[in-house]
Amino acid sequence: xxxxxxxxxxxxxxxCLFSTLxxxxxxxxxxxxxxxxxxxxxxxxxxxxxxxxxxxxxxxGFAKVNLTPSDLAPLAGYGNRRPKEMTRVHDSIFVNTTVxxxxxxKVAMVSADLLIIPPTVxxxxxxxxxxxxxxxxxxxxxxxxxxxxxxxxxxGLVGNMIAGAYDAKYPELIANRIIExxxxxxxxxxxxxxxxxxxxIPSLIRNRxxxxxxxxxxxxxxxxIKSGMEEGIHAFYGAHATxxxxxxxxxxxxxxxxxxxxxVNHTPLDFxxxxxxxxxxxxxxxxxxxxxxRSQFIGEEMAKQVALIQQFGFPYxxxxxxxxxxxxxxxxxxxxxxxxxxxxxxWVFNWxxxxxxxxxxxxxxxxxxxxxxxxxxSGELAVxxxxxxxxxxxxxxxxxxxxxxxxxxxxxxxxxxxKYETRSMSWYGHDNGAYFVEIVKLLIDNNxx
Length: 449
What we know:
Elements: H1 2-20, E1 21-23, H2 33-48, E2 53-54, E3 59-66, E4 75-76, E5 88-89, E6 94-101, E7 106-112, H3 119-131, E8 139-143, E9 149-150, H4 157-163, H5 169-187, E10 190-200, E11 205-207, E12 219-227, E13 230-237, E14 250-251, H6 255-266, E15 271-276, E16 282-284, H7 292-310, E17 321-328, E18 336-337, E19 342-344, H8 346-353, E20 359-365, E21 368-373, E22 376-377, H9 379-391, E23 395-400, E24 408-409, H10 420-424, H11 432-446
Parallel strand pairs: 5-14, 7-8, 13-15, 21-23, 22-24
Antiparallel strand pairs: 1-19, 2-17, 3-6, 3-10, 4-9, 6-7, 10-12, 11-16, 12-13, 17-20, 18-19, 20-21
């Protein structure tokens, strides 16, 4: 009897392992059907949306809407934060939106003080935007990626681990505040002007994945904006907003909030918006500081660098060729690696993480291309793309967290490292970085004026 029981148990274990585990697929992505079918569809979409709209009037409006919940909500970020519920609000969180209208087309650039723009929010926005005469491709979504902001927006086991217990009222709150901010910014539109600016701050960022073996993206991208008598900026930087650790239980914008507040309080600028850039593998360089002193230091130092160039004035232009699109992102079957060569099968991934459509968003303002990706995208890969764009006489901004989430996209050379980013969160293959780079280059090539 004991032998039969052991045999039966062994068979069950083998069946279970076979049904849940698989070899890590290392087939080159260009040989797979998803790539062949996807690249063809993307090219067709790009051909249909080839030319930007050329308007004769530039109107810009800005709005800031409070997103702070009225209750002690869960905090998103850090799977080891227990309990998830916040104890108090250290500094309020917001949705910041800039609406740009060139007389022919309009776009809204939205940044929320959140870990990501959750897929649950994106699904709600599709209907809510239709009701106010907007569409999702016209809205460029981004987040500050603070790890101490509102959670409760992701159902399922993993959603609970990362963002706390799910409650439908939280994605509803976020979506409603985004809609409110777009409507408010649209009502405040005035004669506008804009400019693109770039500076480098290597002292505030580090490669948190491989240290000095890798490179960092130290570029701070700045869009300066005028709306009537108001003037402000929208900044993008690659350092993770993780100055505050998982031990922190207070709601906070982290260093992006310090940055924005310092700009408004210490310069002539009326508003300052921050969005996460290509943050994968990029961490803040905080030195020996602890707690909120870390976020204060990074935010202030970054703001002071911006203030140095702001005092000389931004080179504004008031003519704008405008283009926007949102294209589907085709990927291989997802898997979660448990070792270098073994992973959970795709059905297990979908059961654990759920499934939502993944897309790439893009806005083109004259020779500036702004691309939003549904992932933690590597700053190492971004540096290559910035250089490529300049060879095409383009400027490029890459932003993460555009309303979907495909995990981490690191440089492919690090795929087999036993690190969190590369082992547990790189879901779409050993050459996924090269694939993303190819798609972004395709967008750059297609959007030359």
